[in-house]
Each structure stands twice: as structure tokens, then as C-alpha cells.
Design goal:
Elements lengths: L11 H35 L2 H8 L1 H4 L11 H11 L3 E6 L8 E7 L2 E7 L6 E6 L4 H9 L10 H21 L18 H26 L6 H10 L7 H4 L4 E5 L14 E3 L10 H11 L6 E3 L7 E6 L8 E6 L5 E6 L5 H13 L5 H29 L18 H13 L1 H28 L1
Antiparallel strand pairs: 1-2, 1-7, 2-3, 3-4, 5-6, 7-8, 8-9, 9-10
Helix pairs in contact: 1-5, 1-6, 1-12, 6-7, 7-11, 7-12, 13-14
Length: 450
């Protein structure tokens, strides 16, 4: 993608269109590139979350493999409660032979994650729930670290990044020139070097920017929330057994355990039996018999009508699964896997899974790491290029088109953006108003000077 100027074109309309596109490419970059750098760095780290967390928190998450039988889940929960008094709310079994078990305990000071050696019941340590290094990176990446309202920035940044790619492709288009299309000319001290580096990098990473923007939208504040609500409202799109003859509580799955995005609004069934409840060991034995992938989490019932909820979201989408067990009979009230999702849920989950570097294993992680590095290089080269081009004492906004009718296309863009992505449309309207005000201010300044 390029901010470069070109020689005067024989058709004035084309020249005006180029100016308008260049101007809005500049604005898009000004708004989005700082966020893209942050998202790229945190995103590149998060695709290697398991590897990094297992290394950084090895004293809590990793144990020496032993030949002895692992202790029963109830014994591990008892050890955790001896170390951290409170009420156990979740049990997560080891994902492999060298992993620890994690018990989430609700205390007066908040939830704590207690890590226990599954072979001997030794408590390895405890920390606030969801406070590992990669959970911190995740909250930074999603902007949750700065509050719920900051998630709206994701939607705006995603929409503007798509605009950035679209306008960048137009500016990159060869139009007869030989250099700066797929090759870099000159040396770093020359602006044309940074222009070419920016253009060549942009044309290769543009696809990934658009893909990551669209697949990241589900986490946005307005669009993502509305799509999630629409996809999951009243459990629409779920198998008949989810909606029929299964008493539903008002509690949502996202409130008790980490879950797939498309299931965040799914309601949890209620236990209908009475009498003596089954134990955690019974529930785990039942879930093992049902074939849940190793490392699944079991949310413990916290009230008489509560259920045991087993859930697992491994890299393999086909192994995603949620099972709710009646706490008295142990019968499965709901058993849902990826195969049971509706078409929209499957598409969204595939996009999110790939966005997080899981779908294609290590190859997926390496490709996203390279894409994130390319996006950072794109932002840096844009900054250097702008610095070398800008007039002294000026922001260096690209020139206005002589024929203002080209701005009609922007109004169409505003309408489309406003319908599909409300926050993006609103931000485009604000930028258009600011641009018009900037133009009038410049004109007024020149008039006064004369």
C-alpha cells in the first residue's frame, strides 16, 4: 500500500479519484496503525499461548510424569481447598501426562486458580483466576484490560483496517510502472525505498489484515454482541433437544466456564431430579465414558437445580463439546459438539479458531506470526515514509481532489458501513465532518493572510 504521489494523469477524473483515495488512505492509517501494532504484537504472542504459558508458569502447570495412578478429582479438590479455603466452582483435568490439574476456588477475595499435582495431590501454587501471562495478553489484545467500552475500538479499528487495505490496493495498482510493485528500489535513506517497502509488504499482508479484521469482529462491542445475540437468541439453530423438554435456567454458559464464542449466550439446563447428588468423581467418570477430549473443564453445581457442565475447546474443532449432567441422576441433559452447530455457528467458530492460530496447528501459528510481523513492518514503513514526505510544520495531509464530486463515493461508503458496522459508519461520519472543518479552517487561514 502506498502513499506515493504519481505524475499527472491525462484524465482529470482519475487524478481526482487518486487524490481522494490517497487522502482517506492517509486518514485510515493515521487512526488504525497504532492499534494494528498493538494487536499484532499481542496477537503474535497469543497464538503461542500454550507454549508460552507452559514455559512461563512451568512451576504451576507442569509436573513430572509418574507411573502411579492419578488421584481422584475429589481428592485433588480437597487438597486445593485445604490450601485455599473457599468453595470449589471448577475442576480442570490435566490435558496430558505432564500437566497439573487446576481447581478454581471462590473465596471472599475473588476466584483463585489452584494448581495441584494429579499424582500425589501436592498443591503447586495458586494465583487469581485468569491472571496467567497469556490471559493478560488476551485482555490487552481484546482491549478488555481498559474496560468493556474499550472493546468498541476493535470494531472501529477493524472497519478502518478494511478501508485501509481497499484504498491501499488502489494506490498500489501498477498503472504501467515497473518498480515498487513486487520489488523495492533504492536505499533506506531515500523515501522511495520506504514507499516500495510499504507497498510490497502491504500487498502481501493485506489479505491477512482483512481476514483478521473480519474474524476478530465477533469480539467487538456492538456488532459482535448483536450477532452473538442473534445467533444464540432462544437457542436458535441448536438441535431440538436443546429447546424441547429440557428446562432451561436463566444462566448463560459464558458465566461459568470458558466457551466457544457462538455458545456464550447459550442457556444452561436445570437439574430436574432430587435426593442425593452424584459426586464430582461420578460426573468425571460419566464425561470420560462419553469421550470428552482430555483437559476438559467441569463446572460444579452451585445450587439445587444446578448441573455438572463439562466443556472442552481444543485446537481440533471437531472435538469441541459441551455436556450438561443432571446433578442427581447423572444423565446428560445436553450433549453438543461442533457438528451440532448451525451453519453460522460453524463458520464463526472456524474463523475464530483460525484467527487464534489453532485450525492448522503449527503452520497456522507460523503464518499468523509472519503476518503480524508484516503488519508491524507496514506500520513502521508508513511512519518513516510520512516523516520523509511531510512539509515542515505541517501534518502532511494528501491534497484535496479538484472535483469535489468524488466525495459522493464517500457518502455511499458511509451508508454501507453504517448499515453493516454501525460504529464504523459513525466514525466515518465524524472523520468526514472533521475533514470538512479542516478544509474550511485552512481556507479561512489563507484568506486572512491575503
Amino acid at each position: 500500500m502506498s502513499y506515493s504521489t504519481t505524475s499527472a494523469r491525462p484524465v482529470m477524473g482519475l487524478s481526482d479519484l487518486y487524490r481522494a483515495v490517497w487522502r482517506w488512505h492517509f486518514y485510515a492509517g493515521l487512526l488504525v496503525l497504532p492499534f494494528m501494532i498493538t494487536l499484532s504484537i499481542t496477537g503474535a504472542m497469543y497464538v503461542f499461548r500454550d507454549e508460552i504459558d507452559d514455559w512461563y508458569h512451568a512451576d504451576l502447570k507442569r509436573v513430572q510424569v509418574q507411573e502411579s495412578q492419578r488421584l481422584a478429582p475429589s481428592a485433588l479438590v480437597a487438597s486445593a481447598l485445604d490450601a485455599v479455603p473457599g468453595s470449589a466452582v471448577k475442576y480442570t483435568g490435566p490435558a496430558d501426562a505432564g500437566a497439573s490439574s487446576e481447581i478454581t476456588v471462590s473465596t471472599a477475595g475473588g476466584r483463585m486458580a489452584v494448581y495441584v499435582n494429579p499424582y500425589n495431590g501436592l498443591v503447586l501454587g495458586a494465583m487469581p483466576d485468569r491472571s496467567t501471562l497469556m490471559w493478560t495478553v488476551r485482555t490487552l489484545h481484546s482491549f478488555k484490560y481498559f474496560g468493556t467500552s474499550a472493546r468498541y475500538i476493535i470494531e472501529i479499528a477493524a472497519g478502518w483496517s478494511i478501508l485501509l487495505v481497499a484504498t491501499g490496493i488502489y494506490l498500489w495498482w501498477p498503472r504501467g510502472q515497473k518498480g515498487g510493485v513486487l520489488s523495492v528500489r533504492c536505499k533506506p535513506q531515500w523515501r522511495v525505498f520506504w514507499r516500495d517497502l510499504h507497498a510490497v509488504t502491504g500487498i502481501f499482508v493485506g489479505f491477512f489484515i482483512v481476514f483478521l479484521a473480519f474474524t476478530g469482529m465477533p469480539w467487538s462491542g456492538v456488532w459482535g454482541a448483536k450477532v452473538n445475540e442473534w445467533a444464540n437468541g432462544n437457542n436458535d439453530g441448536y438441535p431440538d433437544g436443546v429447546r424441547v423438554n429440557v428446562p432451561m435456567s436463566g444462566q448463560k454458559l459464558d458465566g461459568i466456564a470458558k466457551t466457544a464464542w457462538s455458545l456464550e449466550q447459550a442457556q444452561i439446563p436445570e437439574s430436574t431430579g432430587s435426593g442425593v447428588a452424584i459426586t464430582l468423581d461420578d460426573a468425571v467418570a460419566k464425561l470420560d465414558a462419553l469421550g470428552l477430549h482430555r483437559g476438559y473443564t467441569v463446572s460444579l453445581p452451585q445450587k439445587p437445580e444446578g448441573v455438572f457442565s463439562g466443556s472442552i475447546y481444543p485446537d481440533d474443532l471437531s472435538q469441541q463439546r459441551v455436556v450438561h449432567l443432571d446433578q442427581y441422576s447423572g444423565e446428560a441433559l445436553l450433549d453438543m459438539s461442533y457438528a451440532d452447530y448451525g451453519p453460522m455457528g460453524k463458520a464463526l467458530e472456524w474463523g475464530i479458531n483460525t484467527h487464534m492460530g489453532q485450525t492448522f496447528g503449527l503452520l497456522n501459528q507460523i503464518i499468523l506470526l509472519a503476518a503480524c510481523a508484516g503488519i508491524v513492518l507496514l506500520a513502521v514503513s508508513a511512519g518513516v515514509m510520512w516523516w520523509k514526505r511531510r512539509p515542515s510544520g505541517s501534518l502532511g495531509v494528501p491534497p484535496l481532489p479538484q472535483d469535489r464530486r468524488v466525495f459522493r463515493g464517500l457518502l455511499v461508503l458511509l451508508a454501507i458501513g453504517g448499515v453493516i458496522f454501525p460504529l464504523v459508519g459513525a466514525s466515518l461520519s465524524v472523520m468526514l465532518a472533521l475533514d470538512m472543518a479542516y478544509i474550511r479552517l485552512r481556507r479561512g487561514g489563507r484568506a486572512l493572510s491575503t
